[in-house]
Amino acid sequence: SSTTTAPAPPPVSLELCGGPQPLVASAPKASELEARTDIYLEFGEEALGVKFRDVDEHGSTHLLEVKLRGIVKKRGAEQWKKVCSEPLHGASVLEAVRGAVPEVSVTADGSQWVRLKKQRWQQDMSGAVVEQTELEVAVGGEGREWQTLPRRYRTICFEGKKPDRCYELLGNWLGLPEDWERHDLEGALAAHAAGVAQDGPGFVAPCLCGYPRFVSAVLASAAPPPLCPDLDADPSPGPP
Could you say which DSSP state residue 61 is in? Predict the structure, then answer.
């Protein structure tokens, strides 16, 4: 006797306007897209988000925004609260962040920056706002030139006061089981990345997270590899 094995299903497309379970009937019009540039500062804390909001084409901004993450649900929903959105008024970024979140021990100085040029689409879907953002990403810092990464990125967010409605939309879109758990969602995201080249700078595996973790992952992937000693080199000192 012989047996046959059914082929594995193709990865689910992460395109809100297409794929096996489209959430909307057609692609959004250009007039429905919001364009904005934000610069995120890396503080090494997944629960702390710090950015300069709405930076102009010359890189100028005076509005610092700080958010704190609160509750994290077992299916992945995160609760974020904006605790600061104001100009620096002459203070350093570190002073401003420490003043906004005195309950958090902030040790990093935020000297590593990630610039996100965003093109964002949003739509209210009966109690949940669905958002898809296309990103052009560059890394740098104050006084340093920007290095634009060769990859493009996309973030997708389901936002609302009732997580169950977001879970329902997300499950229907990705074809998850009705009682899906976090590992089901992470498996669907991993399947989407299976055909993506993972070598070279800037690769970030699909993840369930907020922007602070994404920013840290971008910086880690863009960093040059550590220097390795040449074991075949002559260890003897050279001429004086």
Answer: -
DSSP per-residue letters across 103-123: TS---S----EEEEEEEEEEE
* pLDDT averaged per 10 residues, the chain (length 240): 49 58 74 91 93 84 89 94 89 88 85 93 89 93 88 91 91 91 92 76 88 93 61 45
> Token pair for residue 64?
């610092």
Neighbours of 151 (CB within 10 A): 18
The torsion angle over the Cα atoms of residues 84, 85, 91 and 93, rounded to 10 degrees, is 80
Return d(Cα 44, Cα 50) in angstroms, integer: 11
pTM of the model: 0.81
Q: CA 15 to CA 7: how far, in whole Å? A: 23
Tokens of 51: 């950015």
